[in-house]
Predict the 3D structure of the following.
Amino acid sequence: MNDENRQFDCAVVQGASRGIGLEFTRALVADPRYRQVVATCRDPQRALALTRLRESNHGRLAILELDVTQEESIKAAAAATADLELPVNLIINSAGILHDHRIGPEKRLADIEPTTIQQVFAINAVGPLLVAKHFSPLFDRRARTVLANLSARVGSIEGNALGGWYSYRASKAAQNMFTRNLSVELKRRHSGIICVALHPGTVDTELSRPFQRNVPEHKLFSVERAAGHLIEVINGLQAHDNGRFYAWNGSEIAW
Ligand SMILES: NC(=O)c1ccc[n+]([C@@H]2O[C@H](COP(=O)([O-])OP(=O)(O)OC[C@H]3O[C@@H](n4cnc5c(N)ncnc54)[C@H](OP(=O)(O)O)[C@@H]3O)[C@@H](O)[C@H]2O)c1
């Protein structure tokens, strides 16, 4: 089934305050096929770019508070989305963490801190799963619906030849397993569901900034380019893609 001419009711972007999530939101709001876009972020007051986008798209963009580490906030955002009375045809889980002011990716075993592993897992792995738990009842059961989790190539167990980045790699591997599980369970009651893990390439955002030095210029994508690639992949997904892991160019990645 190709989506080029289809009309959609509602798309949800989780983790939309900045980075690739913000750009997904921009692209979906600009796409007249979507009646409604819901963008979630943990602090709507501070999400100025999203607020500006809503000002120029009256009615079509809703901004909701959602912190993936707080299940109550996920539940509340799902309830507010349900109030829109539009089935959800697409949900993109974009929020993720590699580093912040306190933590950074581990280079070696001696760097391991249990609290870092827990924080990274809570955001990168458990978060998207809880979003699926509370938003999947809103999915459009009559039609093709895509649940896309932003993963990372470094989460591939098969592809791990370099080591390091313990928390990030393992959290994305766990997220990948959750995506695969969802592809099995949700398919039982919704024949049109397609759950995928997506790798955006190396993208010029806060997340990758400290690690861009050795990335050749042509391999460092702008957020516009990355979101554009992944929307093309999402648009082309077919039923048999359910439960698979794809890169930005549509090539499959081994789990
Ligand atoms: N950039 C890359 O090169 C790259 C490569 C491979 C995979 N990815 C994946 O792509 C996704 C998007 O990455 P990005 O580069 O756009 O990252 P980014 O620019 O650092 O943005 C991260 C986003 O995650 C949100 N977030 C963090 N903690 C959250 C929480 N507890 N609850 C809700 N939202 C939270 C942030 O919200 P706040 O504004 O509130 O902090 C922000 O919107 C991630 O899953 C990442 O792992 C990125």
In short: Helices lie at 19-29, 48-55, 71-82, 114-135, 166-189, 223-236. The radius of gyration is 17 Å. The mean pLDDT is 96. DSSP finds six helices and nine strands in the chain.
